[in-house]
Amino acid sequence: MKNIHLFYFSPTHTTKRAVQGIGQGVGVEVIEHDLTFACDSDEEFNLGENDIAIVGVPVYAGRVPEIAANILKRVHGNNTLAVAVVVYGNRAFEDALLELKNILKENGFSVIAGGAFIGEHSYTKKVGTKRPDNNDIEIAINFGKKIDELVKEGNYKKDIDVKFGVEVGVQPHTKDYLESVIKKYPFDFVIASSHAIDRVDLAFGEIQAGRTKDEVHNLYFEYVLQNIEKYNEFNVYGHIDFVTRYGGEKFRGLDYKKHFDIIDVILKKLIEKGKGIEVNTSGYRYREDRFYPCTDILKRYYELGGAILTIGSDSHIKDYMTMDFDRVYDFLESIGVKYISSFDKMQPSFKKIK
Ligand SMILES: Cc1cc2nc3c(=O)[nH]c(=O)nc-3n(C[C@H](O)[C@H](O)[C@H](O)COP(=O)(O)O)c2cc1C
Description:
alpha/beta, binds flavin mononucleotide, 16 strands, 9 helices
């Protein structure tokens, strides 16, 4: 068995507790290194191929604290396996986990797993009160057990690939802002989508008030088209016809034939611009019993020569991740689609279905 080293920077001890929980789960004796005051020393830590480092830092302003990043420069791996852990005060951990992974990679580690845990916010006891609590520690222990299994089975990919993606809600007035943000950061994948018309979210019901179902749906597609014509910084358009989700029963279900013309213009525009569409499975969870977009639209996109299809579950919570993906694969195969796309640095690659 490899030697397990716990490293943590933890002024208010929540990171320490989460990392210790993970160490407990791994189930062997661990070697602990508390780096909280290590800025006062110049000790170097050198780990070898028979070690595993579990490295935890708190999240400050969505990042790895600068002081911790500087201390970690003295923790060196030599093709050493590592687990990256960030602990945040229940606001958001933003880029911290990715940043920690990159720091470890630069220092000679192969990061095989990562986790974000919640700790009581060091500014106030009112946020994340008393976390990590027993439940959090149990999760940390189970995470440690999984790491142990992973290492014993050798069933890990050295250096996990963490992709950087975003969904942007496009409206004509947000175009310039969104384009500047997307260009500024090294995104792998961007989904553009329409959630609002004239600055009003479809979920509020105001758009639907006083309009028929056909009027609302047509208006929505006109907006989608406008957005696609104007906006460029995206790879696929998300849930193209999810307008049917909002407004209540009266507005449910898409009458595809009634909107055929405008949908065709949208699909042709996407193809002309080299953009794809997302097959979003959340319709099954929203009692619509279908994908967004519906199968008619998917067939038509393919028929028109569209070749870029990505799958998403719009999960919001982990239990919904990849839900109903098999239905998508089965359907796409049934209409002759052979490849599904994924993106790296905004460039598509194509993977054969099954
Ligand atoms: C300067 C500072 C900035 C912070 N920024 C964030 C943040 O961006 N998001 C968040 O959720 N918590 C934030 N927190 C809360 C800490 O991440 C959280 O309390 C963490 O559990 C502290 O870890 P520790 O107990 O190991 O010191 C911040 C705390 C401090 C002191």
